[in-house]
Amino acid sequence: MRCTATELEIETIFNRIKTNDFDLQPDFQRGEVWSVPKKRKLIDSILRGWRIPPIHVIENKNYVDEVLDGQQRLATIRGFLRDEIKIDGKLSPLDDHILNLDGLKFSQLDVDTQRKFKKYSVTIIRLTEYLPEEPAELFYRLNQPATLTSAEQRNAFVGDTRNQIRELVDSFERAGANKETIGFTNSRMAYDDVISKFCYILEIGTLRRKITSSDISEKYRSNEPFSMNVYIEAKDILEFFIKSAIRSNDFYSKRLSLNKATLFSWLIFLHRYMNRLEPNELSEMMFEFEHARQLAKGKEDLNIFSKNDIGLNLSAKYPFYQSMFLIFNQRASMGSTDANSIISRDIILEIFLLIFFKEKRFNDDLYDRVIGVYSQTQNLSLTLEKVAEELNWGAQI
Q1: Which distant-in-sequence residues (6+ apart) come within 8 Å of 163 by Cβ?
Q2: The model scores a pTM over 0.90
Q3: Which residues face 9 on adjacent strands?
Q4: Residues in domain GmrSD restriction endonucleases N-terminal (predicted)?
């Protein structure tokens, strides 16, 4: 790997960001997560003429510089030039000139100070002729003191696999995935984490193997992309899911509150049922299930259950109804990535599908097994274990 150092003035860097010649979107780090005080300290350092750490970029095949390390610094500089950050002139050690600039935005500065800021030089280290794992190793070493999520570390493995996941995440967000629609954002690359594991599950074709972060990292490191069938199916499922989630929010005026584990389970569920359910059917089912799950946590009012009191009717008919959500919640938090937890959540979603639509057209065998085993055990946890074993649930998806 070649590392070439160049000095670029802030004005040049800013223009290159605006023309997309500098790409801040790879999110090798953590999104824009710096606090306001930290951003102001960086601006203060530049105003004082102090040196800041170099920016490491990767030159891709289109000669665009993707930011490997230094995204927070560049985003802060961009934000200041866009008048999104004010100067804190009271930072120690006090500087009389900067003290006079306290509370000002860039556009409010005198022309000389603006010019001085724009002419400040930043060291850019450009990486070329690299093996896929080399930028990732450099990124890891540069950020070793910081706590990075597994997804953030994986995203530094430049190559086709990473690019596939980035494309899927971009598509998911463009379709409407955000905190308002599903309950959490892609902060710390949460979507990347879920989608990469989902694609990996589709590729290996089983739920019975625990997928570790090392497994996914090795997939990225190998630079062997997911098959086109896996990629297309994942993209279709993600779009179907978000369309149904948005419809659920709009129709019921109630925001979903998913986490990574529950989103993952819904995607696995849709692998089986996307072509057998209409978006409106999934929306109804998703709302009732997620609302009941929040009720089990004591986080919602029974009065907003549903127009037809569907949940109340099901609860009266099926004695294990409430237990489903208690167990699902538990296995979506503690040990959420364990294979047994994933299988239990998957069976619960399947059971809910069967009883919600009041018919056995989807899975006769599971319906009969659950009713039969539960009548003997009177314990849903034991029932799930026995049914999973008897049906070898998740051996093939």
Answers
A1: 225
A2: no
A3: 121
A4: 10-157
